[in-house]
Fold this sequence. Notes:
This protein has helices at 4-19, 25-33, 35-45, 56-69, 73-81, 90-103, 106-124, 138-152, 161-168, 172-186, 194-207, 211-223, 228-242, 244-267. It is mainly alpha-helical. The protein has 3 domains: 1-50; 51-132 and 191-267, AhpD-like; 138-186.
Amino acid sequence: MTTHAERRQAGSELLAEMTGQPVGFAAAAEQRTGAFGSYVVDYIFGQVWQGDELSRRDRNIVALAMLGALERLQAVRFHASFGPANGLSREEMTEIALQIAGYSGFPAGNEMINVLVGMWSEADGQPYVIPPAEYKDDDQRHRDAVDVMRTLNGRDEAQDPAEALAGMERIGTVGKLAFEFAFGDLWSRSQLSRRDRSLVVVSILVALSKPDELQFHIPGALNHGVTERELEGVMATAAPYCGFPRAVEGYRTLRRILREREEANDGG
């Protein structure tokens, strides 16, 4: 149990540490937006961000993924501004936007990329340049795709690329695009670990309310090293960033998947 004074102090001190602004930020937020400002400090940063389910870096990843997927651009800018204080590099934040392009659509990814490039160009006093993608022929995309699918599915050996592609094509052109672009291009990029990329994708899917897709990506996240406790932290973070209905839906999906995995292991 915590008192309001404790939550206020924790939220104020955390915001001051991350943003470099004075501890009086809370009072300024209240003066500007009243009760809304109170809850930003006391609830989001004084309670949710104080949870030990996620590291501060991971919670920053989750928040940016959710905000970018929902195209909350002012909030993206704010949370990206203290990403470096939490151990996130510009390159890693760029990768979050690229993953959003695959799972929330290119318009959403484009909006986030433009916010990031704009703020970094302004900070540097010169245009910030993101390197282009690695150019790959389809053979390389297919080899990379099956390796991604191997780790997502927790397998020791990769599937034959032609066989894997044929399986994906059961859902038509969309399956082929997912195999070649989502798995072969995005997921195989080395600028963000697969563990972190799973954290991003689960966060996006919770924000977009996609429990059917979570049925695949939550086990994938576990296979990539995200813990059950960290996934609970994703759902807790969704409460202030996406709203309670989506947070509750995500949590229920997580618990169902964990229960099914436990039953399968017991049966084996």
